[in-house]
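Hi R.,

As promised on Friday, here is the backbone we talked about, encoded as structure tokens. Could you run it through your design pipeline when you get a chance and send me back a sequence?
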């Protein structure tokens, strides 16, 4: 079971994200993180590290004018690791097409 204080902090961060605050706290961002985004993987691109994280956010903001992250549940996945399960809602900036 995840620590209730940690869960609250994570959920608050998701709420801020959905209000448009697409920034990351360096204390919460591991320098070796990797983001394997479905669209980027088609071209073989993986976003690595804090710089990659910033590039991923920039790429997503460029491509989508609506970007909501809905967090359904959190599970402790090991020491210092949390697994979030949820949904993403996107609307294409140019096409207006939606994706859930």
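Update: got your reply. Pasting your designed sequence below so it's all in one thread:
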């Amino acid at each position: 079971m995840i620590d209730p204080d940690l869960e609250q902090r994570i959920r608050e961060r998701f709420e801020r994200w959905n209000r448009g605050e697409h920034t990351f706290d360096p204390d919460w961002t591991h320098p070796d993180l990797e983001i394997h985004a479905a669209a980027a993987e088609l071209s073989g691109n993986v976003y690595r590290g804090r710089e990659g994280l910033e590039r991923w956010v920039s790429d997503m903001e460029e491509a989508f004018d609506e970007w909501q992250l809905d967090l359904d549940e959190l599970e402790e996945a090991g020491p210092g690791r949390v697994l979030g399960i949820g949904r993403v809602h996107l609307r294409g900036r140019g096409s207006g097409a939606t994706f859930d």
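One thing I noticed while checking it: The chain has three helices and five strands.

Thanks again,
M.
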